[in-house]
C-alpha cells in the first residue's frame, strides 16, 4: 500500500522524494510490520491521527526524551504523546510509584481512598466545585454535553469551526471541513466528518468561527432557546495554535450569561500547558463546565469533568425523586493505576517550580526557529502556548480556522520527514499539531532539534520553490 502513497510525494518535488527514499531505507522493519498488520488493523494504527504517508514508524521503547523504533533508530521526542507526556517518558518518580501501585492492584472497580486526597487538591487547583473522572478526553466531552443538555433542557450545542473535541458523534462536525462544503464565513455550515455519524447531528451542532463575537451573537439571537451550551477550547490547539483575541473569551462569557446558555471549556489540551492549572484561570474567565485530559494524567488514560455544583450534582445513580439524573459510568473510570499516575503528576512532577525551565526551553526553541525562517527566507512564524509550540507556514497571523486553511500546510510534510530522518520527532503528527516540552527536556535537546531544523530548512525551501514553479 505504501507504494501508492509515494505518489503523493512526487507532487512535492525531487528533494522531498529523496527524503522519502531515505525514510524508506531507515525504517525497513516498520514498513514490514506495517505491511503485515494492515491486513488486520485498518491502516496499521489504532487512532486515525497516528497514520501518515507513506507509513508510520513503529516504536518499541522510550525513556526520558528519547524513543526508539523497531529499526533501532533513536529519536528525541517532541511530540510527547500529543502533549500528554509533560512528565517525559518513563519519568523515574512515576515509574517507582506506579510499580508500587501495580503491586497493590491496578483495578478495583470500587472507590479508592486516594480520592480523599484528590478531593483536597483538585477543586482548589482548578477552581471547580465538583468533578468526576473518566478515561479519555472524548468521554469527558461527551459527559459535559450530556450534563449541559440535562441542566438546560435543550439539545443544541454550538462549537467552533475547525475545533476537535474527540470522537463523540455530536462533536465530529466541522472539525476540518473542506472549502467546498463549509458555507459562508460568518454562518458556517455544519459538516459531518465521519461516515456512520447520523446526518441529524448537523441539526444539533451549530458551527461558529473562532474570535468572532458577532457571529456567536447572531446564532444566539436566533436560537438560544434551543441551545444548551457553547463548547470551546480557550486557545485553539487543533489547527496549529490560535490564541483568543483580546477580550474574546470575556465577551463569550458575557454572551453566555445574556442568553442563558452554558459555557464549556474543553481544556483537554490547554490544562497544565502553561501553568499548573487551566487556561480559564490564566485568562480570568470561568466556564460552567470544564474538561481536562492529556497532561493531567502523566500518560495514564484519565480525564476529568468538573464544574459548578448545581450542574455537576445532576450526576447521580438511579432516579431522583424530583428529577431524573444524569448517567456517568465506566468500568475503568478512576482506576487506581490512572488515579495514582494523576496524583503523582500533579503533586510531585508538574508543580509550580517545574514550569520556568520548560517555558524557557520553549522560548529558546521558538527563537531558534524564527532565526532559521529569517535566514532561509521562509514565510512562517511560531505560535506557542505554554510549553507547546507549532510552525504556522504563513506570514499573516492566523485567527480562525479559515485563515489557518490558507497557510502553506504542504510544506509541513517534507519538513517532518526530513526531521524524522535525522532523529528528531519535531512535533505530533500533522501540520495542525504541535510540540511539547517536558520536564525531562534539556537545552542540549533543543540545540539538537534546532541543528536538525536548520538542515531541514532546505526541504522546506526546495518544496516551496518546486510547488511555486510547477503548480
Ligand atoms: C481539545 C480536545 N478535546 C478532546 C480530545 C479527545 O481526547 P481523547 O483523544 O483523549 O479522547 C482531544 C484530543 O486530542 C482534544 O484535543
Topology:
Layout: H1 2-10, H2 14-26, H3 28-37, E1 59-63, E2 66-69, E3 74-77, H4 92-103, H5 114-126, E4 130-134, H6 137-152, E5 156-160, H7 201-204, E6 205-208, H8 213-223, E7 227-232, H9 248-258, E8 262-267, H10 279-283, E9 289-292, E10 303-307, H11 309-312, H12 336-349, H13 355-376, E11 381-385, E12 388-392, H14 401-405, H15 412-421, E13 424-425, E14 435-436, H16 443-470
Parallel strand pairs: 3-13, 5-6, 5-7, 7-8, 8-9
Antiparallel strand pairs: 1-2, 2-3, 4-10, 9-10, 11-12, 12-14
Helix pairs in contact: 2-15, 2-16, 4-12, 8-9, 13-16, 15-16
This protein binds pyridoxal-5'-phosphate (PLP).
Give the strand order, joined by hyphens, for the main sheet: 4-10-9-8-7-5-6
The low-confidence parts are none
Number of helices: 16
Compressed to H and E, one letter per element, the order equals: HHHEEEHHEHEHEHEHEHEEHHHEEHHEEH
- Helix percent band: 25-40%
CATH architecture of the largest domain: 3-Layer(aba) Sandwich
Report the count of strand segments. 14
Please indicate the count of domains: 2
CATH topology of the largest domain: Aspartate Aminotransferase, domain 2
Structural class by sheet pairing and helices: alpha/beta
Ligand roster? pyridoxal-5'-phosphate
The CATH C-level class name of the largest domain: Alpha Beta
Amino acid at each position: 500500500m505504501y507504494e501508492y502513497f509515494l505518489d503523493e510525494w512526487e507532487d512535492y518535488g525531487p528533494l522531498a522524494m529523496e527524503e522519502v527514499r531515505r525514510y524508506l531505507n531507515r525504517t525497513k522493519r516498520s514498513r514490514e510490520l506495517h505491511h503485515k498488520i494492515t491486513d488486520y488493523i485498518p491502516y496499521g494504527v489504532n487512532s486515525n491521527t497516528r497514520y501518515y504517508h507513506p507509513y508510520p514508524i513503529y516504536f518499541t521503547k522510550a525513556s526520558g526524551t528519547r524513543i526508539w523504533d523497531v529499526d533501532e533508530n533513536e529519536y528525541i521526542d517532541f511530540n510527547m504523546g500529543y502533549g500528554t507526556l509533560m512528565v517525559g517518558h518513563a519519568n523515574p518518580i512515576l515509574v517507582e510509584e506506579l510499580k508500587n501501585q501495580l503491586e497493590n492492584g491496578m483495578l478495583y472497580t470500587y472507590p479508592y481512598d486516594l480520592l480523599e486526597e484528590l478531593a483536597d487538591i483538585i477543586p482548589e487547583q482548578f477552581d471547580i466545585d465538583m468533578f468526576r473522572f473518566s478515561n479519555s478526553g472524548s468521554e469527558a466531552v461527551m459527559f459535559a454535553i450530556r450534563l449541559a443538555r440535562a441542566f438546560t433542557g435543550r439539545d443544541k450545542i454550538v462549537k467552533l469551526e475547525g475545533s476537535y473535541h474527540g470522537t463523540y458523534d455530536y462533536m465530529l462536525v466541522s472539525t476540518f471541513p473542506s472549502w467546498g462544503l463549509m458555507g459562508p464565513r460568518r454562518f458556517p455550515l455544519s459538516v459531518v466528518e465521519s461516515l456512520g455519524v447520523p446526518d441529524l447531528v448537523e441539526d444539533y451542532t451549530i458551527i461558529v468561527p473562532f474570535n468572532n463575537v458577532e457571529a456567536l451573537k447572531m446564532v444566539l439571537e436566533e436560537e438560544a432557546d434551543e441551545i444548551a451550551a457553547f463548547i470551546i477550547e480557550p486557545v485553539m490547539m487543533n489547527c496549529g495554535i490560535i490564541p483568543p483575541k483580546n477580550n474574546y473569551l470575556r465577551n463569550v462569557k458575557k454572551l453566555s450569561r445574556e442568553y442563558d446558555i452554558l459555557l464549556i471549556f474543553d481544556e483537554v489540551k490547554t490544562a497544565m500547558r502553561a501553568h499548573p492549572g487551566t487556561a480559564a484561570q490564566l485568562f480570568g474567565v470561568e466556564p460552567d463546565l470544564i474538561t481536562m485530559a492529556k497532561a493531567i494524567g502523566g500518560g495514564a488514560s484519565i480525564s476529568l469533568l468538573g464544574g459548578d455544583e448545581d450542574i455537576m450534582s445532576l450526576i447521580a445513580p438511579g432516579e431522583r425523586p424530583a428529577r431524573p439524573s444524569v448517567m456517568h459510568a465506566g468500568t475503568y473510570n478512576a482506576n487506581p493505576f490512572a488515579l495514582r499516575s494523576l496524583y503523582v503528576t500533579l503533586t510531585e512532577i508538574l508543580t509550580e517550580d517545574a514550569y520556568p525551565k520548560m517555558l524557557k526551553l520553549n522560548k529558546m526553541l521558538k527563537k531558534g526557529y524564527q532565526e532559521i525562517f529569517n535566514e532561509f527566507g521562509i514565510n512562517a512564524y511560531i505560535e506557542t502556548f505554554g510549553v507547546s509550540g507549532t510552525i504556522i507556514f504563513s506570514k499573516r497571523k492566523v485567527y480562525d480556522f479559515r485563515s489557518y486553511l490558507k497557510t502553506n500546510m504542504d510544506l509541513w510534510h517534507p519538513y517532518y520527514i526530513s526531521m524524522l530522518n535525522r532523529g528528531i520527532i519535531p512535533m505530533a503528527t500533522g501540520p495542525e499539531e504541535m510540540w511539547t516540552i517536558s520536564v525531562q527536556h534539556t537545552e542540549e535537546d533543543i540545540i539538537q532539534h534546532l541543528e536538525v531544523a536548520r538542515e531541514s530548512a532546505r526541504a522546506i525551501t526546495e518544496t516551496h520553490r518546486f510547488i511555486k514553479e510547477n503548480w
